[in-house]
Amino acid sequence: MADGIDGSGFMPGERAALAHAAHGPLSGLTFAAKDLYDVAGSPTTYGNPDWARTHPVPPSTAPAVLALVEAGARFLGKTKTVELAYGLTGENVWYGTPVNPAAPDRFPGGSSCGSAAVVAAGEADIALGSDTGGSVRIPASYCGIYGIRPSWGSVPLTGARGLAPSFDTAGWFAARASVLRRAGEVLLPRGGEGQLGPCLRVQEAWMNAHPSVASALSPALDAVDAAMDGCLQISLIPETLAVLYERFRSAQAEEAWATLGDWVASTGPAFGPGVGERFTMARDMEPGQGAAGRTFRQGFRQRLLGLLGGGAVLVYPTSPMPAPKLGASPEEQLWTREVTIGVTAIAGLAGLPEVSIPAARVDGAPVGLSLVAAPGRDRALLALAERVAERLGLSV
Amino acid sequence: MADGIDGSGFMPGERAALAHAAHGPLSGLTFAAKDLYDVAGSPTTYGNPDWARTHPVPPSTAPAVLALVEAGARFLGKTKTVELAYGLTGENVWYGTPVNPAAPDRFPGGSSCGSAAVVAAGEADIALGSDTGGSVRIPASYCGIYGIRPSWGSVPLTGARGLAPSFDTAGWFAARASVLRRAGEVLLPRGGEGQLGPCLRVQEAWMNAHPSVASALSPALDAVDAAMDGCLQISLIPETLAVLYERFRSAQAEEAWATLGDWVASTGPAFGPGVGERFTMARDMEPGQGAAGRTFRQGFRQRLLGLLGGGAVLVYPTSPMPAPKLGASPEEQLWTREVTIGVTAIAGLAGLPEVSIPAARVDGAPVGLSLVAAPGRDRALLALAERVAERLGLSV
Question: Which of A205, B28, B91, B127 is the most exposed place for a label (fewest CB within 10 A)?
Fold first, then answer.
C-alpha cells in the first residue's frame, strides 16, 4: 500500500495527455479511461502494482480511446480499476478505493470504480470502463449514473487488458442519457437503430431485488411501460438465479485462469482482499464445472436470442440492492456478489447489450434500472434509455 | 330445414369432381374442402340455402383447391360450414350438424365443422377449412385432429367466400402431423423453415383453461418443453382475455358487416340459431367499438411481432374446454364462445400461424395443444408440431 492513496476516481500521479480533434461530434466533452486501456507512453497498471512492474509501458493507444479523442473529446486521464478487473465492490487497496460521490459511506462498485466515480463527481463527461460480469453496470447503479455494457464484440478491446475474453466488453458511463448515446454513436458500429418492443419484466430479477428497490423503481418501470406501450411479465430463468450465478462464475473463472493464470502463478503478485481468493478458486476449480458453465451458456444464449431477436427488451433492476456500506463484512460482500451476478449474468452469459438508468434512490443511495436487448441493438437501446429518462423527468 | 339433413361432414347430394395430377407430393392422399371454396360447376352454399340461391354457380376453382389436386391429392367433395362461417359450435340446421366422430354427444366445433368431421372420421386425409376467429383451430381441438391456421395472407383465399378479410385465413386439417406438414409444403409459400425457440407458456391462457384441461395437457407440455429445451412462462395479456375477446369481437363484427351486410340487408336470409343474432349485433354496433378494436389490434400485433420475431413460440391449450355437449343451452354456448375467443384472438388479432395438436382427452373428449409463432414461420411450426407429436408417441 503505497503513497498516493486517495479517494479520487483518477489514478494518482501524473496524468497521461493525448491530443484530440479540434472539431467532432464529441467536441466540448471530456473523458477518462479505466486503467486497463493502453495509452501510449503511460503505464497500464490493471489496478495492481505487480502488474505494472512486470509489463512494459505500452507504445500505442487503445482504439476505443483513440475513437473518442478523434471525435473531439478531451482525455483527462486514467481511472482506477479493481485489480485485474476481478471484483464488483470497487475496492483497490493499492491506489485507494474511489469515493462514491452519490453515497460516500458506500462502495462505488466495480471493477470500473474510478470511471464511475469521476463521472458521478462531474469530473468527466464520459468514462470508458469494461464489463465482464457487471463491471460497468454495477458501478453505474451504485453511483447514480448511466452506464452501458454494449453487445459482446461490438466495441474493440484491442489494447485493453482482458479477464475472460468471451465475456469481456468495453463499456462507458455518462451522467446524461444524451451523452451516453453520443459516445455510442462514436464507439458502436453502424446499424442497430429502429424500434424496440415489447418490454418484458423479468419476474425473477424483480423478485430477487430488495422490496425497497423494486418499490423505488416502480415509477421508472411505469416510464418504460409508457415509452414502450406496455410491459409483459416473463419468467425467464426456470433454473433460478442461483444457477445462473453458478454457471457464470464457473465459465468466467475458467477463462480468467486461462487468460491470467500463467502470470499469477509465475509472478505471485500481492493482491488485495478477495482478488487472490478468486484466482485461487479459478485455479482449483474442477474441470467439469467450467464445462457445465459453457454448456449451460450455449443453451441460455440461444433461448435469449430467440426471445429478443424480434426487438423485445428485458427490464429489471440493475442491482438487487444499492451499494454495500464500506464496512460490510466479507460474508455480506460475498452474498451481495452472488445475488448481484445472478442478475448481471443474464446479459453476461448471452452477450446482450444492457443500459443502466439512474432511476431511483433507496436509503439515500442510488439504484439503476436496466434495459436489455438483442445483440447489435445497442443504438436503439441508447435511444430508448433517453426516451425513458425524459419521461422520468431526468435531465437528458 | 330441407331434405338431405345428415350427420356426415360432407355436404349432402352429388359430390363435385376434379381431376388430379397422376404424380405429385400428395399422391395417394384424399382431401375435401369447406363449402366456401369455389369448385367450378358446383354451387358454393356458404352453409346457407339463401346464399346458394342468390349466387351463381362459380365458373372456376379456388387456387387453394387447385394446388392440392395439382399436387396429386384426390378431391372427395365439399364439406359443411357454419352459415357464412360466423360461429364456433359447428351447428348447421340446413344441411345437418356433422357428428363429432371423436365425441358423438358433443358439437364438432366450427365453422369448418364438416372438414374436421371428415378427417376425424377417416373419410379424408386432408380437408381445407378457413379460420377467422378459430374456425379451424376449435374444430381441430374438439375432434381430436391436427389443424393449422396459417399466417394471415400466406395461403390465397381467392375464390373463397370471406367473413372479415383482415382476419380470414385458409387452413387445413389432418389426422397425422406429417400429412398436415406435407399439405403445408404444397400450400404455403417457400421459406419460414429453421429453428424456433424459446417456448413461452402463456400464463393467462393456461389459467383460462379448465383445470382438467390444463392437467390433461401437462404431458404434452412436457413434450414441447423437451423438444424446445425448456419453456418459459410469460404473462402476455395485461388487459385480460375478456378484453381480447371484446376487441376481437368488435373488430371482426365491423368487418363482417362491411363484407356481408349488404347481402344480409337486401336478402333477409333465414338463419339458424345465433348467426342472425350476430349479424344484427354487427349491424347495430356503435362505431366507436369497431375503432377501439382496430386500434387495440395494431398495438397488440406490434407487441406480438416484437416478442415472436426472433423465433419464440407461444404454447397454450387450443380451447379452454373440450367441445360443449349437443344439448348445451344458448347461455352456455355464449359463455363458451367468449372464453374460447379470448384465447383464439391471440393469433387472430396478430395474424399469427397456430397449429393445434390432438394432445389429450378430458371426460372422453379431445382437446388440443396449440403452438403459435411469428408470421411466416408456418413451415417451422409444422415441423415442430411433428417433433412434438413424435415425443408424445402419436403416430405421425
Answer: B28
- What is the dihedral sign for C-alpha B325, B330, B331, B333? positive
Q: Where are the alpha helices (DSSP H) in chain A?
A: 49-54, 63-70, 113-120, 137-143, 177-187, 203-208, 211-216, 218-227, 241-267, 275-284, 287-308, 330-350, 378-391
| CB contact residues (below 8 A), chain B span 219-248, against chain A | 229-236, 238
- Counting Cα atoms < 13 Å in the Cβ hemisphere of A138 gives 36
Q: Which residue of B has its CA nearest to A238?
A: B232
For testing the chain B interface, which of A203, A234, A315 should be mutated: the one with the most B CBs within 10 Å? A234
Cβ distance B309 to A310 less than 8 Å, yes or no, reads yes
Min Cα–Cα distance to chain B from A181, Å: 23
A202 and chain B in contact, CB less than 8 A: no
pLDDT attached to residue B2: 40
Cell 446524461: give the residue: A176
Say whether B172 sits in a helix, a strand or coil.
strand
Q: Tell me which residue in A235, A302, A374 faces B197 most closely, judged by beta carbons.
A: A302
Residues of chain A with confidence (pLDDT) below 70: 1-5
Region B192-214: mean pLDDT is: 95
Q: d(Cα B81, Cα A52) in Å, to the nearest integer?
A: 81
Q: What pTM, to 2 d.p., does this model score? A: 0.86
A10: closest CA of chain B, how far (Å): 42
Neighbouring-strand partners of residue B361: B366
CA A33 – CA A58 distance, rounded (Å): 15
Please, which residues 57-96 of chain B have a Cβ atom closer than 8 Å to chain A? none
Find the largest Cα–Cα distance for chain A.
56
| Record: contact A197-B309, CB cut-off 8 A | no
Domain B30-242+286-391 has CATH 3.50.50.60: no
**B104-114 mean pLDDT:** 97
CB B222 within 8 A of CB B392: no
Q: What is the pLDDT of residue B336?
A: 96
Residue with cell 417457400: B190
Tell me the CA distances in angstroms from A150 to A3, A136, A166, B35, one per residue in order: 36, 10, 13, 56
Tell me which residue of A307, A110, A264 sits closest to B230, measured CA to CA: A307
Active site residues of B: 34, 111, 135
